[in-house]
Inverse folding.
């Protein structure tokens, strides 16, 4: 693989609010043209980190560089070339969508006509309505249109799908992919692991102000001691300790009621045959057996001992 | 250039926001209309019942002359008993009795003058004196002409176009100041806290727009709006309720402009402390109410106790109104008010510094 150019560099970024350390010395690079995700639970420090990088918040210490420019020393120049969508931001109530995009466009030296932007996010018919009359999904799409007014090279999206229904979320994913295919670098935060998996080439997992892991989702999962999950349903209750003693099985969690068990395994190729043999010896009929890779949720649990979603 | 688009956008938003328009225009206009409808300083007319018992040429002439006076409404339909009862009941103010056979008695010649009986309510002192003066004037003239005497002295009336300074005229500049103050402080404070709550301020911070241009947009729009407000309030007062402005509209505009800058700054300060638009409205009212009542919108501040006046004179609305009235009613040039302009300039300076220091984007 060719060496990729870094478009964002974050070095030892720290942000404190009094005694609270919201961002605790994080460092990473974002490569040109990639979709980079910051995955973490609420309060992990994602928004604070992003806003420090965008130049909206003044970091306590550390350096943030976008497109070779220091975000804080050359803020105005950087802001000309990036697009920022804030978490749960609103827009003026008494201007139409077209008017808002026109107004925002005038702030930038390079700007895209409102019609074109609205067409891109599928809101061309809503040009003359106000934001208050849009659905949740439409609002988020409009918010992305507003992020693209200056035809930015780097786009920051802070929890773009939080609060959306599954259909609207998928629409938005397509939009993010489209933005990516236009050659823009995208940095997004999310607390949905499916979203990070679906959209991001590389993912930084963040917890309590720190990045606890950073890699592609496939590598993150495969680096787990138990990258597979085997799920079985039997006709009767099974002895958990016996299953846990099988080869390559590290941990078994069971739902006693439905006789459903999940095995964390390091190697499915040796665990599954062993499980089947053991089952035959025990005279157990498995009504259902499935093997799947672990998820980012599992990665998060393994790294922090916590569930991603509270 | 961008700041200019910000002004236009802010004006558009204001005119599309009904609630905002209400506070800008309807609220001060309500005051103009209410105070315009009550005839606050119209002279009171008196109702005079005449019981004419002689019904001859002299009594007729007297009654006709009384009828020609606008401040007196003459009634001849009542009987003496009715009239007396109505005077007691307060329905009429005066009852004048002209005794019978006035012409014959005068022609015969009498030792003592014939009495014309006037009954009145002792409470209306000022009006009573006026009524006596009017009646005595008529009687004197009647005496002279009946005696065929030549008048030796006469008052020569010369009508001068006097300025009619009415209470309503005094109020009108007060309403301009009040309207501009209330709208600027409450609207800016509300909008600012709303923009912060909705992260619009943060969104602006994420763009390369210099912060001052965003605020120039808000301030510019408000300066235009304040002039529109002042014009509409004055126009309504003048056209609908015969209010008067004697001085220069240019100086009025300058004072509105200057005062408005202070109020906008106060709005920014209040909006910096208020976390939500609701708090902003509450805080805004807490700031505007005392000025509305004590800075002389409704009554001259001279009528306040001296200790209070000493404080009140330094509130920004007070010098604005003093200068505004001097300019509008006494037709003085703006430089006749150096103290007032000085206080206003100090307010502009202090509030600008404070507004810049306390302002926060998030
Ligand atoms: N302006 C602020 N003042 C004080 N604490 C803050 C501020 N902003 C964020 N925090 C705190 O910093 C931590 C990280 O918040 P945030 O960056 O919003 O997390 P995330 O976006 O991952 O949910 C939280 O504990 C939050 O309460
Ligand atoms: Mg967040």
């Amino acid at each position: 693989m060719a060496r990729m150019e870094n478009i964002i560099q974050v070095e030892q970024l720290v942000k404190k609010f009094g005694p609270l350390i919201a961002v605790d010395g994080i460092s990473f690079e974002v490569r040109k043209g990639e979709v980079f995700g910051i995955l973490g639970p609420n309060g992990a420090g994602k928004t604070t980190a992003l806003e420090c990088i965008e130049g909206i918040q003044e970091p306590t210490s550390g350096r943030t560089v976008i497109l070779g420019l220091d975000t804080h020393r050359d803020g105005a120049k950087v802001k000309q070339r990036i697009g920022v969508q804030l978490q749960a931001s609103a827009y003026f109530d008494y201007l139409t969508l077209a008017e808002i995009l026109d107004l925002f466009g005038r702030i930038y030296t390079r700007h895209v006509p409102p019609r074109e932007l609205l067409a891109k996010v599928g809101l061309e018919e809503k040009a003359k309505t106000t934001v208050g009359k849009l659905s949740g999904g439409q609002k988020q799409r409009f918010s992305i249109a507003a992020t693209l007014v200056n035809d930015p090279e780097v786009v920051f999206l802070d929890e773009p799908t939080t609060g959306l229904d599954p259909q609207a979320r998928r629409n938005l994913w397509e939009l993010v992919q489209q933005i990516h295919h236009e050659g823009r670098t995208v940095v997004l935060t999310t607390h949905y692991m499916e979203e990070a998996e679906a959209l991001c080439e590389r993912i930084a997992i963040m917890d309590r102000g720190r990045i606890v892991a950073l890699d592609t989702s496939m590598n993150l999962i495969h680096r787990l001691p138990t990258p597979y999950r085997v799920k079985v349903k039997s006709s009767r209750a099974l002895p958990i300790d016996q299953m846990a003693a099988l080869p390559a099985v590290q941990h078994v969690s069971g739902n006693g009621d439905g006789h459903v068990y999940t095995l964390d395994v390091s190697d499915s190729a040796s665990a599954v045959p062993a499980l089947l043999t053991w089952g035959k010896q025990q005279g157990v009929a498995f009504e259902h057996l499935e093997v799947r890779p672990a998820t980012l949720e599992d990665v998060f649990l393994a790294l922090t001992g916590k569930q991603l979603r509270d | 250039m961008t700041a200019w688009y910000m002004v236009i956008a802010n004006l558009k938003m204001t005119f599309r926001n009904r609630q905002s328009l209400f506070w800008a225009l309807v609220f001060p206009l309500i005051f103009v209309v209410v105070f315009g409808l009550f005839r606050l300083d119209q002279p009171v007319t008196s109702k005079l019942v005449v019981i004419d018992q002689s019904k001859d040429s002299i009594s007729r002439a007297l009654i006709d002359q009384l009828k020609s006076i606008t401040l007196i409404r003459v009634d001849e339909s009542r009987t003496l008993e009715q009239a007396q009862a109505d005077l007691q009941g307060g329905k009429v103010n005066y009852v004048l009795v002209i005794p019978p056979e006035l012409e014959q008695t005068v022609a015969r010649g009498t030792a003592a003058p014939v009495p014309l009986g006037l009954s009145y309510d002792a409470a209306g002192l000022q009006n009573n004196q006026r009524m006596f003066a009017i009646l005595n004037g008529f009687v004197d003239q009647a005496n002279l002409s009946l005696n065929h005497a030549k008048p030796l002295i006469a008052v020569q009336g010369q009508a001068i176009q006097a300025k009619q300074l009415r209470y309503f005229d005094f109020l009108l500049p007060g309403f301009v100041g009040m309207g501009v103050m209330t709208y600027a402080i409450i609207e800016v404070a509300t909008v600012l806290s709303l923009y912060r709550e909705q992260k619009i301020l943060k969104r602006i911070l994420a763009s390369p727009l210099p912060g001052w241009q965003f605020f120039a947009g808000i301030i510019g729009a408000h300066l235009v709006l304040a002039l529109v407000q002042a014009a509409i309030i004055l126009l309504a007062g003048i056209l609908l309720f015969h209010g008067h402005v004697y001085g220069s509209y240019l100086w009025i505009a300058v004072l509105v402009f200057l005062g408005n800058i202070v109020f906008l700054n106060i709005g920014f300060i209040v909006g910096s402390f208020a976390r939500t638009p609701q708090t902003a409205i509450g805080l805004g009212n807490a700031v505007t109410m005392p000025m509305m009542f004590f800075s002389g919108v409704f009554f001259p501040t001279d009528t306040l106790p001296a200790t209070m006046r000493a404080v009140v004179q330094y509130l920004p609305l007070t010098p604005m109104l003093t200068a505004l009235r001097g300019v509008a009613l006494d037709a003085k040039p703006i430089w006749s008010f150096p103290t007032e302009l000085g206080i206003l300039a100090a307010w502009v300076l202090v509030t600008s510094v404070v507004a810049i220091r306390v302002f926060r984007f998030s």
